[in-house]
Amino acid sequence: QGVSRAAWLPRLSLSALLGTLSASPENLLFMSGQAYSVGGSVLQPLIDFGRIKAQIRASDARAQAQLANLQQHALTALSEVETALSAYFNAENRRRDLVDTEAKAAETLRLSRKLFLDGLGPFLNVLDAQRGLLRAQLARTGADAEVVRAIVDLQSAMGGSTYADKPLPDANDPPLFQLSPPEKSHSALDGSPLAGDRKPPPPSPLSLRACAVCPEARLFNATTKGTRPC
């Protein structure tokens, strides 16, 4: 734009000439054998049939278009960051809710197991509580993955690198982190590892038998030949 407006201003040019009029070397150092000239010129456009105005208008239009394009890119970037932030906060709030749900499900399983061992509740409640805990754990794991994806999207929206341009690691490279061994699964009855995770324990003297007083099953102790009282 400034270059186009500069076409309205006059152009100043200077020229200089230095030479000699004699072919003899002894006359080169004397003023009579030298020739020089210095001159200048000023050019000002008078009639250009609107060419300069058209160039200025075109330059202004290009500048306005570039400014609008820059503003559009800035608004798009801000919108992407706002969307990524909202997605992250929603994912984090959902993850916290599911963590609380998982803790409540674990407490429900503990109470159901205690009631069953005390002879105050059926074993079906223990199984239902364990299924509820597993569902809560799966939901919480999915929420953890959603939080990680939201963090990656937020980093990308803010101009950070997602390591997509990095080469894949070689098989001989040392691991970035070491995974801990998986935790052993626990039974619904006493929380001990299942038989697939350890050597089979000796047979327990306790077994389930029908109660003579109520229709529910009660623990029978083979050592004392008796059942828990109802």
Number of helices: 3
| CATH architectural label of the largest domain | Up-down Bundle
End-to-end separation: 96 Å
Major sheet: size, sense and barrel closure? 3 strands, antiparallel
How large is the share of residues in beta strands? 5-15%
In sequence order, what are the helices and strands, one letter per element?
HEEHHEEE
List the helices and strands and how they pair.
Layout: H1 2-5, E1 11-20, E2 34-43, H2 51-117, H3 123-157, E3 206-210, E4 217-221, E5 226-227
Antiparallel strand pairs: 1-2, 3-4, 4-5
Helix pairs in contact: 2-3
Structure description:
Helices cover 46% and strands 14% of the residues. The protein is α+β, with helices and mostly antiparallel strands and 230 residues long. The N and C termini lie far apart (96 Å). The model is unreliable at 175-189, 193-198, 203-210 and 212-230 (pLDDT under 50).
Brief descriptors of the model:
alpha+beta, disordered C terminus, rod-shaped, two-stranded antiparallel sheet, Four Helix Bundle (Hemerythrin (Met), subunit A), 2 domains, single chain, 230 residues, 3-stranded antiparallel β-sheet
